[in-house]
Design a protein that fits this description.
By secondary structure, the chain is mainly β. It has a domain at about 15-130. The chain is built from 2 helices and 14 strands, in the order αβββββββββαβββββ. Strand 13 (about 205-210) and strand 14 (about 220) form a beta hairpin. It is globular and about 45 Å long.
């Protein structure tokens, strides 16, 4: 998984934007790239050990993040219309200056350099064993040149988006095989016309299954 040194400050986080590629048939942007986004962000618990993040930046893609923890997480939900996030593979930092909340989701490998919560902001810092990033195209009309968009994302709210994940993986427990990663891997990624995702894990079983015309890309820790 590609990494870049920590170079942005919290001030830059509040103003950065994500430059999406033109919407045409072809591979989506790689989900393992260093990524900065800004727009409507919702963060909240999916269950007692999973946190989800949904980002709509007004562009051509929807970004989903899921974070897994060993420790139980108290139920919460927060939404901002103008939040900023920074993704570095092993950590995700979300800040909403308009509502003064801040969340840091970090795996053990990212714990040393993730920014701390600004003074006066609410929120929390969570350390877990896995963090994934999934990119989906947002539903739109076919292009004027007759090229049709495939694998469009029709989920329209936090719950319908973050719960739309096939948890069956290769290895014990059944499910499809891993197209990248597998036993001993701490990270993997996959990207094609239908979807893009990446994951960083501490447990040594990062499994990514490529998207198809009927299933989303699947990257998670086993």
């Amino acid at each position: 998984m590609r990494k870049m040194p920590l170079a942005l400050t919290l001030v830059l986080l509040s103003t950065a934007v994500y430059a999406a590629k033109p919407l045409t048939d072809g591979p989506l942007p790689p989900a393992d790239d260093y990524t900065v986004l800004a727009g409507k962000v919702t963060i909240g618990t999916i269950d007692a050990h999973t946190i989800g993040v949904l980002v709509d930046d007004g562009g051509q893609y929807r970004h989903l993040f899921r974070f897994w923890t060993e420790a139980s997480v108290k139920t919460f939900r927060a939404t901002s219309q103008s939040a900023s996030i920074e993704f570095r593979g092993d950590e995700l930092v979300i800040m909403a200056a308009d509502q003064e909340w801040f969340y840091a989701l970090v795996t053990a490998s990212g714990d040393a350099h993730a920014p701390r919560q600004p003074i006066g902001f609410t929120g929390s810092r969570y350390v877990g064993y896995g963090l994934n990033h999934e990119i989906r195209r947002i539903a739109t009309q076919p292009s004027g040149k007759g090229r049709h968009i495939v694998a469009l994302d029709f989920c329209d709210d936090f719950d319908s988006c973050v719960f739309n994940l096939d948890t069956g993986l290769g290895g014990s427990g059944g499910g499809g095989s891993c197209d990248s990663g597998g036993v001993g891997s701490t990270s993997c990624s996959t990207s094609n016309t239908h979807g893009s995702c990446s994951v960083t894990c501490n447990a040594g079983y990062a499994c990514c299954t490529a998207a198809t015309s009927s299933a989303n890309a699947n990257c998670r820790c086993k």
